[in-house]
Design a protein that fits this description.
Protein name (chains A, B): Histidinol-phosphate aminotransferase
Strand content of chain A: 5-15%
Pathway (chains A, B): Amino-acid biosynthesis; L-histidine biosynthesis; L-histidine from 5-phospho-alpha-D-ribose 1-diphosphate: step 7/9
Number of domains of chain A: 2
CATH topology of the largest domain in chain A: Aspartate Aminotransferase, domain 2
Oligomer: homodimer
CATH architecture of the largest domain in chain A: 3-Layer(aba) Sandwich
Keywords (chains A, B): Amino-acid biosynthesis, Aminotransferase, Histidine biosynthesis, Pyridoxal phosphate, Transferase
Shape of chain A: globular
Cofactor (chains A, B): pyridoxal 5'-phosphate
Number of helices of chain A: 11
CATH class of the largest domain in chain A: Alpha Beta
Pfam families (chains A, B): Aminotran_1_2 (PF00155)
Radius of gyration of chain A: 21 Å
Order of helices and strands of chain A: EHHEHEHEEHEHEEHHHEEHEEH
């Protein structure tokens, strides 16, 4: 072994969901939106002057920051943007989670939290969800270096009521509390109003789900101007120009089209509710998802077997082999009505 | 002060060059390419199917990685891509610079190295350039936690011969040595062949200068497959999907057009050599730049005054107020022939 190997930051990397190259696949494995992005995005591409790509983008990303601020009716000093909410969350971990006390998050949750903590050498404690997969607010009353959880939670899709979130925040006034709302637009209630009441709260959202721009990589955080400033300081020290020129324009067009956003999220919700009824009829058990996926346990077959059989039939869903408590479940993204009909038909005819 | 403030990573952020919104400006302040990106980039935008943006991009970025590997005639296992070379360098600092010994870099150099080291709490030592702004290889013989320098150096534009680079590498077999070649395509000689001879060497390049895609944010590293794997492990632990779908296509088109690349870099070099002659005639002193900028000291006026007077005339160049040794200099990016004629004409008529 060479000496330089001692100085390497060795990590166990996150494994992203499969991105099959076969386009015949019904892709219900990475919680993408089944509908295209807002029509304005197409226009952006048609009208974009390619010659401008020779110039650096605006490092402050004012145009997109202002469009997000307008949409949520908040001041632009309360908005931070990044290359997907993963980038935003990684920056938050780097900026705010530098205590010697452990940060707290659920044991069953977005699988990146422990990856970031491990990579950044942040101590952490994973608090078990209750038997019905709920986050228990009182578990978060103990001394800690910060708190982060998704709402709705992943991969359960379960929503925590806003008063319980506020309870966690009230008991954690000495640390930063991050509410990761990647899926909140599909029927959840955002903690956004709490950023004005508590200066230690950060709400994180993404353009990858409800705004159908997973391929563009855009996420954002909303918090008090003081927190946004600290976050920008670290971001400018890491990579000043993260958002490229085309993405700034595309994401701005997407966020400006409120009607399309409301229409497509409503469609996803409607399809989800239909899928729930069908899955229930077929004996599946699942939490009452308020996200664009359903985390469901089949009745008479192992999740692993059903996962493989679906895949053989070109229907991709997601299976997590660990932790053990969830390996009987499959996470099924909500596709179009047609895709969900195909899935339900497969399950109706399925005998293992 | 609230308790959470103690846990914040406080940094002094890098200040990016001005991005004036006034388009009448002659912009010679951020080393952008005066020519547009390869024609294939325009085609990419015209033909891009916006609907695909709803899907996550390929986290491995195979298409672009393979195109870069083809261009440089190396195996794709030796290529890593990121969101600009700043992202690539930040990932390298995180992955490889984890020793308690200081990393070494020049005192006058790319102004981001100390920002990353400060932000990531990496100890460092800045080694003074010689009186003629040369990097002195023997300064880098001492024990250290890693070595990084640009070649050509920034903001001097001065090229270090390959045998001196190899000398530094030979004396640093126990650490990672990073050669940052942002400007190498404008007449420099790349250290790329050394990655096969030494498994501890990383060569970093960017699409922001010679490939005219500063607005797209693309950079890359080339090194032994072992180093690339460690780098990808950390990258996948930080942000799995950094490169967006449009940028992957645009950058692939750019790298595939070797003829356009050679033609436009040759034009920049020709304009640079003409500008050198003119600046010399006007009494400026400067290093023999092999980059797309000239770091020049005016004869009878302070750099600060000339900087302001140029700006008042809508000609933007870059002035660094620190370190003191360089505050008599201006960094002038190479624009089109027409832009450089305008600059020279201004200087001819200039009396302070």
């Amino acid at each position: 072994m060479r000496d330089w190997e001692n100085n390497i930051r060795k990590v166990v990397p996150y494994t992203p969901g499969e991105q099959p190259k076969n386009t015949c696949v019904i892709k219900l494995n990475t919680n993408e939106n089944p509908y295209p992005p807002a029509p304005g995005v197409k226009e952006v591409l048609s009208n974009f002057n390619t010659d401008d790509l020779r110039l650096y983008p605006d490092p402050r990303v004012d145009k997109l920051v202002n469009a997000i601020a307008d949409f949520y009716k908040i001041d632009s000093s309360k908005v931070f943007v990044g290359v997907g909410s993963d980038d935003v969350l990684a920056m938050i971990f780097m900026t705010f989670f530098n205590s010697k006390k452990p940060i707290l998050f659920p044991d069953i949750t977005y699988s990146f939290y422990d990856v970031w903590a491990d990579m950044l050498r942040i101590p952490y404690e994973q608090l078990p969800l209750s038997d019905d997969f709920s986050i228990v607010p009182s578990d978060y009353y103990k001394a800690n270096g910060g708190v982060v959880f998704p709402n709705p939670n992943a991969p359960t899709g379960k929503l925590m009521p806003l008063d319980e979130i506020e309870d966690i925040i009230k008991h954690n006034q000495d640390v930063i509390v991050v509410v990761d709302e990647a899926y909140v637009d599909f029927g959840g209630e955002s903690a956004l109003p709490l950023i004005d009441k508590y200066d230690n709260v950060i709400v994180v959202q993404t353009f990858s789900k409800s705004r159908a721009l997973a391929g563009s990589r855009v996420g954002f955080a909303m918090a008090s101007p003081v927190l946004i400033k600290y976050l920008n300081d670290v971001k400018y020290s890491f990579n000043s120009y993260t958002m490229d020129r085309i993405t700034i324009e595309a994401a701005t067009a997407a966020v400006k089209d409120r009607a399309y956003f409301e229409e497509t999220t409503a469609k996803v919700i409607k399809t989800r509710e239909w899928t729930k009824k069908e899955l229930k009829r077929l004996g599946f058990t699942f939490c009452d998802s308020k996200s664009n996926f359903i985390f469901a346990k089949p009745a008479n077959v192992s999740a692993t077997k059903l996962f493989e059989d679906l895949k053989a039939d070109n229907i991709f869903v997601r299976h997590f082999s660990s932790p053990e408590r969830i390996n009987d479940y499959l996470r099924i993204s909500i596709g179009t009505d047609e895709q969900m009909h195909t899935l339900i038909k497969f399950l109706e005819n399925y005998s293992c």
